Amino acid sequence: MRYRRMPIEIESPEAIGYGRIRYNLAESSVTDAVLGDLDLSLKDVVLEYGDHMGRPGLRQQLAGDYDGVTAEDVLMTIGAAAALFIVNTSLLKAGDRTVVLHPNYATNVETPRALGANVITLPLRFEDGFRLGLDALERALTPETRLLSLTYPHNPTGVMISRAELERIVALVEANGAYLLFDETYRDMAFGEKLPLAASLSPRAISISSLSKTYGVPGIRMGWLVCRDPALMETFLAAKEQIFISGSVVDEAIAEQYLAQKDVHLARIRAQIAANFALVKTWMDEQTAFEWVEPQGGVVCFPRLKPDAPVDTGRFYEVLNEDYGTYVGPGHWFEMDRRHFRLGYGWIAPDKLARGLETLAEAAEKALR
């Protein structure tokens, strides 16, 4: 393994220090929950080694949300990041061919690279509305392809694919004898009809999710993977056991109790997302320095400074960070031009979001060449 620290981690809000940020538009989740507000009962939790697959009741809860999935198809992990790591290290070795959607959450790209895999990127372009070209995907998939890695709703753009497109993707994966790693952390945040769980469509599809992004509880580090191939699940369980044996029984108890009230939490969260998204959409319609592909889900979008805008990009971020205390996720977090940036609108309070958006335009004005 060849590890390197990623810019998205080095420059993350938690690394910088939340106290140094006035307008945090870099977050890719909803507002963090407060433990005391959740009305949890943890007094009877035995601080033992937990079930290696994960708390049975928790896995049953998750399986109940999906068609054709049982608790035995669900493996709890330490956040979605651990699930991504487990799948990539279980399926790939040095020299193996993997096709990865790009731009993407950095871990989806960096873990295969650390393994020495041959990483083929599927570039999404602003000019194409960040749409996935299925013909290009078909050309990229070959019998030598071991793994296809996709994320929808997409991070960082917020774009979606249709159910028909997902079904064609699954068929292409099966035809080439590959596996599909489908990072669907934002699945419950789709603005329209959400996609079926990818793992429910084929034993060769592996779904990844967590409580961090949609539900605002990243502090308990609770993620999971879903796969209907028993032999593959045995491999994933072996990987989990060799890395961290089992998860935190406290975290899993919190997750189980939280998800028991999932519908209540999700209604509140979706209302918050809709209100904040409306602020962003209104602002985008009124300002002149930036352009975007309007997102269809999640809590992030990927606008850019207009190509013809005479803005010094380095100066823009300097003014934004130092003069205003506003932070976004600059394009280099995703190996993209720094005129792009990820803007997160689900975490921040509406009044601060409104002002933070204003500072983007003001910083662009101050950074004119």
Key terms:
Aspartate Aminotransferase, domain 2; alpha/beta; 2 domains; seven-stranded mixed sheet; Aspartate Aminotransferase, domain 1
Short synopsis of the structure:
With about 375 residues, the chain is of the alpha/beta class.
Q: How many DSSP E strands?
A: 14
Poorly predicted sequence stretches spanning 5 or more consecutive residues: none
- Approximate helicity band: 25-40%
* Beta strand %: 15-25%
Could you name the CATH class of the largest domain?
A: Alpha Beta
Major sheet details:
7 strands, mixed
Helices and strands, in order, run as HHEHEHEHEHEHEEEHHHEEEHEEEH
CATH topology value of the largest domain:
Aspartate Aminotransferase, domain 2
- The CATH homology group name of the largest domain: Type I PLP-dependent aspartate aminotransferase-like (Major domain)
Global morphology:
globular
* Class by SSE composition: alpha/beta
Strands side by side in the biggest sheet: 2-8-7-6-5-3-4
From the alpha-carbon coordinates, what is the Rg to the nearest angstrom? 20 Å
Tell me the number of structural domains.
2
Q: What is the annotated CATH architecture of the largest domain? A: 3-Layer(aba) Sandwich
| Total number of helices | 12
- Tell me the distance between the termini: 44 Å
Could you characterize the architecture of this molecule?
- The protein is α/β, with parallel strands linked by helices and 369 residues long.
- It folds into 2 domains: 7-28 and 263-366, Aspartate Aminotransferase, domain 1 (Alpha-Beta Complex), CATH 3.90.1150.10; 46-260, Type I PLP-dependent aspartate aminotransferase-like (Major domain) (Aspartate Aminotransferase, domain 2), CATH 3.40.640.
- Helices cover 38% and strands 15% of the residues.
- It has helices at residues 7-10, 13-16, 56-64, 79-91, 106-115, 134-140, 163-175, 230-244, 249-260, 262-286, 313-323, 350-366; strands spanning 23-24, 74-78, 97-102, 118-123, 145-151, 179-183, 205-210, 222-226, 290-291, 300-301, 304-305, 326-327, 329-330, 341-344.
- The strands form 4 sheets. The protein has a 7-stranded mixed β-sheet with strand order 2-8-7-6-5-3-4, with helices on both faces. Strands 10-14-13 form a 3-stranded antiparallel β-sheet, with no helix packed on it.
- Helix 7 links the parallel strand 5 and strand 6 (179-183).
- Helix 3 runs parallel beside helix 9 (249-260), helix 4 (79-91) runs parallel beside helix 5 (106-115) and helix 11 (313-323) packs across helix 12 (350-366).
- The chain is globular, with a radius of gyration of 20 Å.
- The mean pLDDT is 96.
